[in-house]
Write a sequence for this structure.
């Protein structure tokens, strides 16, 4: 039953979900339903298999009345070693 | 100054019956006879007493025996703590942490893993490794609900930025022994799911954690693999694959 519901959900999101592109690279990350409810943005059924990071999008001109939130993806860590060899 | 060649111990985590464990160990040794194999056994105690392998430890840790691993926050710290004395006794330089359903596909696997670690100048290399703070990673959002989670990293970190959280698969990670032993000593006050605990702990203790390039798709837990696909995966460049369930229980597959 659970698997069937998941299948139907995935089908629905595949048809009606928003395409989510990486705001930094333009890469298509997957699809999801984006629902705004009670001041929160809910990402439902994202099928891209990566961790999404919300980012405010850059704008080609200054706009005081609207800002957009998009997404980028988690990246691999690249920190130096701090422990002694 | 004497320079010793690296020696690798593969810690094989399993709960399978003794006959399957014997086949598994023989297969791993066949692919790389130079390595030490330590079986970390999480199955029934009476099965453990019947294991016919050179090195084995019994992991008596309820935090390992979970069903819904992320929700119950499965931990490998018991595995690390049980294996640590063996690693020190054997004097190995590196540790490969493998689960029973991970199958090596190439000879001299450890030489290739050592090469990756050296190329990345890393202390730990893992699969599906990502820096996830500030993301919607479900394991992170679940853990972050408890303030003790971030407080713990703050309490152990030697780094300036103590908010960093990493995620990686538990299986197939490759460690310098110093990093493995340092993580083995940790006793966090809350249970932390192993996919967050292992890489984040190593990072905050000052070790350099890096991904295995181009191998993640061969280790994806949501894509089961079958023995008849081994050759195709090998041709695609897989060093090992995961998960292959039930492989060691099928005696006819292992002449």
């Amino acid at each position: 039953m659970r698997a069937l519901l998941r299948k139907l959900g995935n089908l629905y999101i595949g048809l009606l979900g928003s395409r989510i592109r990486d705001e930094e690279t333009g890469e298509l990350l997957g699809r999801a339903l984006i629902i705004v409810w009670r001041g929160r943005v809910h990402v439902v059924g994202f099928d891209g298999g990566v961790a999404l990071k919300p980012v405010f999008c850059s704008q080609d001109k200054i706009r005081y009345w609207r800002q957009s939130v998009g997404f980028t993806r988690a990246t691999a860590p690249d920190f130096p070693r701090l422990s002694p060899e | 100054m004497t320079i010793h060649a690296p020696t690798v111990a593969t810690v094989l985590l399993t709960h399978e019956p003794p006959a399957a464990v014997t086949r598994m160990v023989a297969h791993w040794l066949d692919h790389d006879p130079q390595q030490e194999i330590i079986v970390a056994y999480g199955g029934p105690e009476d099965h453990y007493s019947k294991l016919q392998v050179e090195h084995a430890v019994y992991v008596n840790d309820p935090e390992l025996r979970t069903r819904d691993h992320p929700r119950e926050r499965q931990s490998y710290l018991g595995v690390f703590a049980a294996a640590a004395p063996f690693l020190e006794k054997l004097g190995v330089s590196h540790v490969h942490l493998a689960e029973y359903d991970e199958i090596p596909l190439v000879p001299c696997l450890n030489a290739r893993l050592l090469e990756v670690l050296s190329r990345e100048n890393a202390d730990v290399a893992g699969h599906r490794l990502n820096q996830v703070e500030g993301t919607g990673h479900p394991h992170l959002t679940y853990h972050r609900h408890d303030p003790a989670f971030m407080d713990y990293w703050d309490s152990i970190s030697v780094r300036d930025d103590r908010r960093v959280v990493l995620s990686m698969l538990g299986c197939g990670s490759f460690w310098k022994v110093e990093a493995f032993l340092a993580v083995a000593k940790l006793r966090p006050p809350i249970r932390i799911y192993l996919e967050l605990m292992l890489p984040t702990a190593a990072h905050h203790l000052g070790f350099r954690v890096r991904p295995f390039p181009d191998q993640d798709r061969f280790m994806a837990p949501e894509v089961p693999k079958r023995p008849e696909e081994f050759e195709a995966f090998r041709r695609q460049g897989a060093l090992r694959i995961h998960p292959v369930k039930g492989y060691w229980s099928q005696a006819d597959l292992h002449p």
Notes: The radius of gyration of chain B is 18 Å. Chain B is about 35% helix and 15% strand. Chain B touches chain A through 28 residues (CB under 8 Å). Residues 18-31 of chain B form the longest helix (14 residues).
